[in-house]
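User:
I would dearly like some help making sense of a protein record. Take your time, and here it is.
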Amino acid sequence: MGKFDIGGLFKQAQELQEKIASAQQALAERSVEGSAGGGMVTVQVSGKLEVLRVGIDATLLATPDREMLQDLVVAAVNDGMRRAQAMVADEMNKLTGGLGIKLPGMG
């Protein structure tokens, strides 16, 4: 039976940690778009799960319906967050190679 290499294990863990940190930094610069109401409300969400931009079609402002607009903004933000979380999870899964490692914020 071979000797267990704890030093090698620590080195691999450190390399993975560095790759994850690098990926998180790269993801922070990427974004996805969420939408609601057939694209009448759009949001841009970063890989850091921050809302960067909200777009509202002018026709929604022509005859304002406050409740509908609020609902559409919430739906678009939720859609954007789901898409951003999926993007982050996909990138992290690529790094961990499906090892079943649960990373913070990855549900």
